[in-house]
Design goal:
One of its GO terms (cellular component) is endomembrane system. Belongs to the strictosidine synthase family. By secondary structure, the protein is mainly beta. The chain contains 4 helices and 28 strands. The longest helix has 16 residues. It binds 2-acetamido-2-deoxy-beta-D-glucopyranose (NAG) (6 copies).
Amino acid sequence: MGNLRIIIWIYVIHFCSLHFHVNCVRPTYQFTTKLSFIGANASGAEALAFDYSGGCPFAGVADGRILKYNCPSLGFQDFATTSPFRTKEECDGKPAPKCGRVAGLGIDYSSGGNLYTLDVFFGFFVVPPSGGAAIPVATGYNGTNFSLPNALDIDQASQYFTDAEKLFLTGNHTAIFASNDTEGKVYKYDIKTEELTLLVDGLTGPAGLAVSEDGDYLLIAEFMKKRIQKFWLTGKRANSLETLITLPGAPDNIKNCKRRFLGGVRVSKPETVEIVEAIGMMFNGVGRILETLNFTSEYNGRMVEEVQEFSSKLYLAAASSNFVGVDRDDFNHLRL
Ligand SMILES: *[C@@H]1O[C@H](CO)[C@@H](O)[C@H](O)[C@H]1NC(C)=O
Ligand SMILES: *[C@@H]1O[C@H](CO)[C@@H](O)[C@H](O)[C@H]1NC(C)=O
Ligand SMILES: *[C@@H]1O[C@H](CO)[C@@H](O)[C@H](O)[C@H]1NC(C)=O
Ligand SMILES: *[C@@H]1O[C@H](CO)[C@@H](O)[C@H](O)[C@H]1NC(C)=O
Ligand SMILES: *[C@@H]1O[C@H](CO)[C@@H](O)[C@H](O)[C@H]1NC(C)=O
Ligand SMILES: *[C@@H]1O[C@H](CO)[C@@H](O)[C@H](O)[C@H]1NC(C)=O
């Protein structure tokens, strides 16, 4: 019996590492590293980005700051802010609408490291590589303010971002799932021409977005519909939307990971909507789930908003925690 179990386990690992089309469920995680926000008096990262030169993460936190982790030992320090009304005295450690709330981050490496960011209250901004006060890029479209700018990705000269339902601000998931809201949108911003275009309308909680490696499609996470939509940007199917995959829970941010995608997924039973499993899922662009990562034991009934791979490590952001989780496992097997 013992031998049989060992053989089966090796078989599963083998399949995972060779990318066979199996939905591998990894055992529950225990982080060995937590990049703490305590020194910066912050919590609640909802977005991460990486500076290629140092590989130390930027984190958008709940009180309206973008922090940068100064490797190896200085920890998170202030880097930029979005709200024009924010003061350190009134806002550090005390999230409030006037302080801002950073929900999306993306670095334009081609520009030498401009950091683009979304604030759920104040809109779309760019931060120069030196940091400081973020410069507004757009606050709305065609005379109407954005509702809840939420997720961002960059493909060279184009920025794509979602605008989700204000209802998310309540944090009441019973109400969020019951709303049937279809006001969610995806916009494209052309950095050169400064033109803002509405690409997709009618979405139900577009909480995540990622551009494909070749820039030929977007994946959009529809939180309340628990699914990933695929929007074609080029080719015969350009400008059409199709359902790529339905998930066991509500997806938040999605990140491109070497021709695969990683998403933070909120799994709960309808009757216990506030008791949550923190799950990360890896899937590909044709809708196959490749791996399920279970972070439940580290997050104690709350979800993980973002799972991102950088330099063979996984980094996790959660609005409910005061750290960035780093998984020490070697994720080289994600490379094709
Ligand atoms: C953190 O911020 C809170 C709220 O502004 C403040 O009361 C507390 O003293 C701060 N703690 C530190 C260590 O700065
Ligand atoms: C902009 O808003 C006006 C007035 O609400 C509307 O008639 C028009 O169709 C909108 N244009 C676009 C491109 O959405
Ligand atoms: C739109 O946003 C601007 C700037 O953030 C604000 O001053 C204005 O009141 C908003 N308009 C509406 C209709 O909410
Ligand atoms: C959440 O929303 C549901 C449905 O709208 C409502 O019954 C419930 O009282 C709300 N919960 C809280 C804590 O506001
Ligand atoms: C959402 O749709 C469900 C199922 O169609 C319906 O029962 C519910 O009343 C709708 N909720 C709202 C707020 O319209
Ligand atoms: C994740 O782990 C928890 C225990 O920590 C377990 O209850 C749950 O079923 C697991 N979920 C999945 C999808 O593996």
